[in-house]
Specification:
about 270 residues, Arc Repressor Mutant, subunit A, 6 helices, 15 strands, about 30% strand
Protein backbone atom coordinates (compact mmCIF):
# COMPACT_ATOMS: atom_id res chain seq x y z
CA UNK A 1 0.00 0.00 0.00
CA UNK A 2 1.28 3.47 -0.84
CA UNK A 3 0.21 6.59 1.04
CA UNK A 4 0.85 9.98 -0.61
CA UNK A 5 1.68 13.10 1.38
CA UNK A 6 1.67 16.37 -0.65
CA UNK A 7 4.69 18.61 0.00
CA UNK A 8 4.04 22.30 -0.51
CA UNK A 9 7.61 23.61 -0.75
CA UNK A 10 11.30 22.72 -0.67
CA UNK A 11 11.46 23.07 3.11
CA UNK A 12 8.60 20.60 3.52
CA UNK A 13 10.39 18.17 1.19
CA UNK A 14 13.61 18.37 3.19
CA UNK A 15 11.75 17.93 6.47
CA UNK A 16 9.84 14.95 5.06
CA UNK A 17 13.11 13.32 4.00
CA UNK A 18 14.61 13.92 7.45
CA UNK A 19 11.53 12.58 9.22
CA UNK A 20 11.29 9.53 6.97
CA UNK A 21 14.74 8.42 8.15
CA UNK A 22 13.11 7.61 11.49
CA UNK A 23 10.46 5.39 9.90
CA UNK A 24 12.25 2.17 10.83
CA UNK A 25 11.61 2.72 14.53
CA UNK A 26 7.98 3.71 13.87
CA UNK A 27 7.52 0.63 11.70
CA UNK A 28 8.79 -1.51 14.58
CA UNK A 29 6.26 0.08 16.93
CA UNK A 30 3.47 -0.43 14.43
CA UNK A 31 4.58 -4.01 13.77
CA UNK A 32 4.28 -4.77 17.48
CA UNK A 33 0.76 -3.34 17.61
CA UNK A 34 -0.23 -5.18 14.44
CA UNK A 35 1.10 -8.48 15.79
CA UNK A 36 -0.88 -7.93 18.99
CA UNK A 37 -4.06 -7.19 17.03
CA UNK A 38 -3.65 -10.25 14.80
CA UNK A 39 -2.92 -12.33 17.91
CA UNK A 40 -6.21 -11.28 19.49
CA UNK A 41 -8.13 -12.06 16.29
CA UNK A 42 -6.38 -15.44 16.05
CA UNK A 43 -7.34 -16.29 19.62
CA UNK A 44 -10.96 -15.26 19.10
CA UNK A 45 -11.36 -17.21 15.84
CA UNK A 46 -9.26 -20.20 16.90
CA UNK A 47 -7.14 -20.09 13.74
CA UNK A 48 -3.32 -19.79 13.67
CA UNK A 49 -2.23 -16.39 12.34
CA UNK A 50 0.95 -14.40 12.09
CA UNK A 51 2.38 -11.30 10.44
CA UNK A 52 5.53 -11.52 8.34
CA UNK A 53 7.73 -9.29 6.23
CA UNK A 54 6.67 -5.86 7.47
CA UNK A 55 8.53 -3.28 5.39
CA UNK A 56 8.19 0.51 5.28
CA UNK A 57 9.91 2.76 2.72
CA UNK A 58 9.60 6.47 2.01
CA UNK A 59 10.73 8.76 -0.81
CA UNK A 60 9.97 12.12 -2.46
CA UNK A 61 8.81 12.08 -6.10
CA UNK A 62 8.11 14.81 -8.65
CA UNK A 63 4.61 14.97 -10.14
CA UNK A 64 2.81 17.33 -12.53
CA UNK A 65 1.20 19.04 -9.55
CA UNK A 66 4.31 19.28 -7.36
CA UNK A 67 6.47 17.21 -5.04
CA UNK A 68 4.85 14.34 -3.15
CA UNK A 69 6.19 12.29 -0.26
CA UNK A 70 5.24 8.62 -0.59
CA UNK A 71 5.19 6.00 2.14
CA UNK A 72 4.92 2.36 1.08
CA UNK A 73 3.87 -0.22 3.67
CA UNK A 74 3.96 -3.96 2.98
CA UNK A 75 3.36 -7.08 5.07
CA UNK A 76 1.89 -10.57 4.75
CA UNK A 77 -0.86 -11.80 7.08
CA UNK A 78 -0.63 -15.58 7.38
CA UNK A 79 -3.98 -17.21 8.14
CA UNK A 80 -6.04 -14.29 6.83
CA UNK A 81 -8.43 -16.59 4.94
CA UNK A 82 -10.22 -19.76 6.03
CA UNK A 83 -9.20 -22.83 4.02
CA UNK A 84 -11.93 -25.47 3.57
CA UNK A 85 -11.40 -29.17 2.88
CA UNK A 86 -12.83 -28.84 -0.63
CA UNK A 87 -10.20 -26.21 -1.46
CA UNK A 88 -12.43 -23.15 -1.12
CA UNK A 89 -11.03 -20.00 0.48
CA UNK A 90 -13.28 -17.75 2.56
CA UNK A 91 -12.38 -14.21 3.59
CA UNK A 92 -14.31 -12.03 6.02
CA UNK A 93 -14.34 -13.47 9.52
CA UNK A 94 -11.26 -11.46 10.53
CA UNK A 95 -13.34 -8.29 10.18
CA UNK A 96 -14.88 -8.70 13.62
CA UNK A 97 -17.48 -5.99 14.13
CA UNK A 98 -17.17 -4.92 10.51
CA UNK A 99 -14.94 -2.26 9.00
CA UNK A 100 -15.01 1.45 8.20
CA UNK A 101 -13.44 3.02 5.11
CA UNK A 102 -13.04 6.77 5.36
CA UNK A 103 -13.22 9.25 2.49
CA UNK A 104 -10.26 8.77 0.15
CA UNK A 105 -9.43 5.29 1.45
CA UNK A 106 -9.78 2.10 -0.54
CA UNK A 107 -9.55 -1.60 0.18
CA UNK A 108 -8.43 -4.15 -2.41
CA UNK A 109 -8.76 -7.93 -2.15
CA UNK A 110 -6.32 -9.78 -4.44
CA UNK A 111 -7.14 -13.35 -5.49
CA UNK A 112 -4.65 -16.25 -5.46
CA UNK A 113 -3.73 -17.76 -8.78
CA UNK A 114 -5.98 -20.62 -9.89
CA UNK A 115 -9.11 -19.45 -8.04
CA UNK A 116 -12.39 -17.92 -9.16
CA UNK A 117 -14.96 -15.92 -7.19
CA UNK A 118 -18.17 -17.57 -6.03
CA UNK A 119 -19.54 -14.74 -3.91
CA UNK A 120 -18.47 -11.21 -2.98
CA UNK A 121 -20.29 -8.93 -0.54
CA UNK A 122 -21.08 -6.12 -0.72
CA UNK A 123 -20.88 -5.41 -4.44
CA UNK A 124 -17.41 -3.96 -5.16
CA UNK A 125 -16.86 -0.50 -6.61
CA UNK A 126 -14.20 -1.88 -8.96
CA UNK A 127 -13.08 -5.34 -10.02
CA UNK A 128 -10.67 -7.07 -12.36
CA UNK A 129 -9.40 -10.52 -13.27
CA UNK A 130 -7.60 -10.87 -9.95
CA UNK A 131 -9.13 -8.41 -7.50
CA UNK A 132 -12.17 -6.64 -6.09
CA UNK A 133 -12.02 -3.17 -4.55
CA UNK A 134 -14.20 -0.93 -2.39
CA UNK A 135 -13.80 2.78 -1.79
CA UNK A 136 -14.72 5.02 1.14
CA UNK A 137 -16.64 6.37 2.70
CA UNK A 138 -18.31 3.03 3.53
CA UNK A 139 -19.34 1.15 6.67
CA UNK A 140 -19.20 -2.65 6.45
CA UNK A 141 -21.25 -4.86 8.83
CA UNK A 142 -19.75 -7.68 10.89
CA UNK A 143 -17.91 -10.21 8.72
CA UNK A 144 -17.57 -7.94 5.70
CA UNK A 145 -16.01 -7.31 3.27
CA UNK A 146 -16.56 -10.95 2.33
CA UNK A 147 -15.35 -13.17 -0.50
CA UNK A 148 -15.73 -16.87 -1.23
CA UNK A 149 -13.26 -18.35 -3.74
CA UNK A 150 -13.10 -21.82 -5.28
CA UNK A 151 -10.42 -23.59 -7.32
CA UNK A 152 -11.00 -22.83 -10.99
CA UNK A 153 -12.19 -25.82 -13.02
CA UNK A 154 -9.75 -27.15 -15.66
CA UNK A 155 -12.07 -26.00 -18.45
CA UNK A 156 -12.94 -22.57 -17.10
CA UNK A 157 -9.72 -20.89 -18.20
CA UNK A 158 -7.92 -18.26 -16.11
CA UNK A 159 -9.57 -17.19 -12.88
CA UNK A 160 -12.02 -14.36 -13.32
CA UNK A 161 -13.32 -11.61 -11.04
CA UNK A 162 -16.92 -10.45 -10.67
CA UNK A 163 -16.60 -8.39 -13.82
CA UNK A 164 -16.07 -11.54 -15.88
CA UNK A 165 -12.71 -10.39 -17.24
CA UNK A 166 -9.82 -12.82 -17.31
CA UNK A 167 -6.12 -12.65 -16.70
CA UNK A 168 -3.31 -13.62 -14.39
CA UNK A 169 -4.05 -13.59 -10.67
CA UNK A 170 -1.94 -11.91 -8.01
CA UNK A 171 -0.36 -13.73 -5.04
CA UNK A 172 -2.80 -14.07 -2.14
CA UNK A 173 -1.64 -11.51 0.38
CA UNK A 174 -3.54 -8.89 2.30
CA UNK A 175 -2.11 -5.42 1.59
CA UNK A 176 -5.56 -3.83 1.93
CA UNK A 177 -5.46 -4.21 5.74
CA UNK A 178 -2.40 -1.95 5.85
CA UNK A 179 -4.37 0.81 4.20
CA UNK A 180 -6.61 0.96 7.22
CA UNK A 181 -3.99 0.92 9.94
CA UNK A 182 -0.43 1.53 8.84
CA UNK A 183 -0.87 4.25 6.26
CA UNK A 184 -2.78 6.70 8.49
CA UNK A 185 -0.59 5.95 11.50
CA UNK A 186 2.85 6.20 9.90
CA UNK A 187 2.00 9.13 7.65
CA UNK A 188 0.60 10.99 10.65
CA UNK A 189 3.82 10.36 12.55
CA UNK A 190 5.83 11.78 9.65
CA UNK A 191 3.47 14.77 9.40
CA UNK A 192 3.83 15.40 13.11
CA UNK A 193 7.63 15.17 12.88
CA UNK A 194 7.71 17.63 10.00
CA UNK A 195 5.50 20.09 11.88
CA UNK A 196 7.52 19.74 15.08
CA UNK A 197 10.85 20.32 13.36
CA UNK A 198 9.47 23.26 11.40
CA UNK A 199 8.50 24.79 14.75
CA UNK A 200 12.10 24.20 15.94
CA UNK A 201 11.10 22.24 19.01
CA UNK A 202 13.92 20.19 20.57
CA UNK A 203 11.92 16.92 20.53
CA UNK A 204 8.29 15.82 20.14
CA UNK A 205 6.40 15.28 23.39
CA UNK A 206 4.76 12.09 22.09
CA UNK A 207 5.70 8.71 20.66
CA UNK A 208 4.60 6.88 17.53
CA UNK A 209 2.77 4.40 19.76
CA UNK A 210 0.68 7.26 21.16
CA UNK A 211 -0.14 8.61 17.69
CA UNK A 212 -1.16 5.12 16.59
CA UNK A 213 -3.27 4.55 19.69
CA UNK A 214 -5.16 7.82 19.19
CA UNK A 215 -5.83 7.12 15.50
CA UNK A 216 -6.95 3.56 16.16
CA UNK A 217 -9.58 4.73 18.67
CA UNK A 218 -10.90 7.31 16.19
CA UNK A 219 -11.12 4.65 13.48
CA UNK A 220 -12.86 2.21 15.80
CA UNK A 221 -15.69 4.70 16.22
CA UNK A 222 -16.11 5.21 12.49
CA UNK A 223 -13.93 8.31 12.20
CA UNK A 224 -15.75 10.48 14.76
CA UNK A 225 -15.34 10.31 18.55
CA UNK A 226 -15.15 12.60 21.57
CA UNK A 227 -11.75 13.60 22.91
CA UNK A 228 -12.66 12.29 26.36
CA UNK A 229 -13.38 8.86 24.86
CA UNK A 230 -9.91 8.84 23.29
CA UNK A 231 -8.37 9.63 26.69
CA UNK A 232 -10.38 6.86 28.36
CA UNK A 233 -9.68 4.14 25.80
CA UNK A 234 -6.00 4.86 25.16
CA UNK A 235 -5.12 5.31 28.83
CA UNK A 236 -3.03 8.35 27.88
CA UNK A 237 -3.07 11.57 29.86
CA UNK A 238 -5.35 14.42 28.79
CA UNK A 239 -2.33 16.59 27.98
CA UNK A 240 -0.71 13.90 25.80
CA UNK A 241 -3.92 13.30 23.84
CA UNK A 242 -4.39 17.05 23.45
CA UNK A 243 -0.83 17.48 22.14
CA UNK A 244 -1.16 14.63 19.63
CA UNK A 245 -4.53 15.92 18.39
CA UNK A 246 -3.22 19.47 18.10
CA UNK A 247 -0.40 18.31 15.82
CA UNK A 248 -2.66 16.04 13.77
CA UNK A 249 -5.15 18.90 13.47
CA UNK A 250 -2.43 21.28 12.26
CA UNK A 251 -1.46 18.76 9.57
CA UNK A 252 -5.03 18.24 8.38
CA UNK A 253 -5.32 14.67 9.64
CA UNK A 254 -8.14 15.42 12.11
CA UNK A 255 -10.53 18.25 12.91
CA UNK A 256 -11.96 19.18 16.32
CA UNK A 257 -15.12 21.06 17.18
CA UNK A 258 -17.10 21.84 20.32
CA UNK A 259 -20.18 19.72 20.99
CA UNK A 260 -21.68 21.00 24.21
CA UNK A 261 -19.12 20.40 26.94
CA UNK A 262 -17.23 17.90 24.82
CA UNK A 263 -14.75 18.18 21.95
CA UNK A 264 -15.64 16.08 18.94
CA UNK A 265 -12.70 14.70 16.94
CA UNK A 266 -13.22 13.80 13.27
CA UNK A 267 -10.71 11.94 11.06
CA UNK A 268 -10.22 13.74 7.74
CA UNK A 269 -7.89 11.30 5.95
Amino acid sequence: VEHRYPLGDQVSSQLFEQASKSLESYATDYGNRLASLVGRISEQLGRPMSVEGLNVTARVVETLTGRVGTIRVEFTWIGFAQTHEDGRLEVGDVFIGGLVLLEGESLRLAFPQGYETIKVAPNPDASGPSFVEWGGRRVFPDGEPYALLAPASPHSGPASGPSGSTGRSAPFVDPWTITLFAAPTISAVVAALVWTRRRSRPSPQWTSDEVGAVLEVIRRYGGTVTQSKIVKETGLSKSTVSTVLKILEREGVVARQKAGREKLVRLLR
